[in-house]
Amino acid sequence: MPRVRSSYKKSSRTCRVFLLSCCLLTFVVLSTKRSLSELRRNHLAAVEALSRDARWKTLHDPKGGGGGGAYYPPSKLCRSGTNDTRTLGAATPGNFGFVFGGLGGYARLEAFKCVLAIESLVRVAGYDGDVYFITENIASSCVPSQEELRARLGYDRVHVVYVDEGSPFEKSSDAERTNGTRSRRRPLRKYLKDMSIKMDIFDYLPKRIEIAAWYDCDVVFGVHGCARNNLMCAIPEFSHATPMYTSLGSAGWHVGSFMVHRVFSAKLLREWKEEFFTGRHISDYPAIEALYERQERTGNLLKLWDIGHFTRPRTGNTYSHDWSVLTSDPSAGEMYSAWRDVIFDKKTPNSCIMHLTTGRCSELNSGTVATDALIRSLGLFTPGNVRYCSGTPRKVILQQGLAPSWKSCVPPPADFVFPLKARLLQRMISPRHINKTRPS
To answer: Per its UniProt entry, which superkingdom is the organism in (predicted)?
Structure first.
């Protein structure tokens, strides 16, 4: 009898502990959910308040101060000989196209950024030419179909193009040679292979497109009418000596935005891909830099090529108060300055093309509230009002190649918290931190 009573007490105690644990867990879950909801509401309220601020509107309303000519006037090339900014020179050439790439994380959690870039190009900048969105045809894709995207924009010249698995990434891979001998390749991680769509850019475009402007998806177009009033009047001149143009020129090797020509850039694009596929480089940036340095050492001086500049080297990639930069004044050596992707700064007016980098999302720079307020000021909205800037949980998914495993298009609920510094995050997820036995 005592044994039965003892067993009953033990069972009763276990049951009470279990119920208490369940209650505690439920309390923690509900409290966390409530806290996250409150953080989200506070963030959205701060965004709404900032976007209504008079000073903010003066700087960032695309039709107001930032887009009304006071801070970002039409190009002198567009106004050549007339006060009418809608001149023949502003018409979009039929052989030109904008190109955006959405693979890996940008086909999933970050796909909305590609959509916002295209939407701002069409609705804010007033672009009336062809737009190509290269992405993956996967079951877990967060990219809208071509029909859905056209319906959303009310615009039928946006084209969604899907990459074929294994091609053109591996196209003629056995035949590629470097310096006369077959190059020895190292296997590339998928996110690196995804970068090669830049080098194969014309494989995805119709033959009539001879000039392609590539921009990474983390840009928005911030000035009303700047496509016709600033960009289309100033498409660069290509040659075999200048087969590519970028925002920072050959000194910066910035290929997050660049412009290339189907004929004059063909050799450069092919050799860039060959160099990249050797597996010696951590990204596409150092691959093209290595290619340039090698041709300087070994090439024929008469056949050397260089990267063209959208601006003079001293202009940089921040908003400029220099009128010659803003108007792309040829007499001052600024022919193509409207094409540069200017780093977003909440304290300076909008530019035509604005780069919303991860660094600008830091509270030390523009911050998450200002970034979302900019999106709101442009008349754009993220799906479900998610933050434009990635929180730490989203960064872990994206930077560690976990995006294919994250099947939802909705970011983790905790994306509004844990704004850890990049250096601390890198330490937390680095192999050396995880495996302390590995020598440092």
So the answer is: Eukaryota
Q: How far apart are CA 210 and CA 201, in angstroms?
A: 11
Whose tokens are 């990635």? That residue is: 390
CA distance 63 to 75: 16
β strands within 188-237, DSSP E: 211-215, 219-221
pLDDT in tens, 63-118: 875 555 678 998 888 876 444 434 434 578 899 999 999 888 888 888 999 999 99
Across the chain, how many H-helices and E-strands are there?
13, 12
Alpha-carbon distances, residue 184 vs 235, 294, 359 (angstroms)? 38, 17, 36
- Type of residue at 12: S
Q: From residue 76, how far is each of 147, 220, 324, 329 by CA, in Å?
A: 37, 23, 9, 6
Q: Does domain 39-388 have CATH number 3.30.1330?
A: no
The domains of the chain are located at 39-388
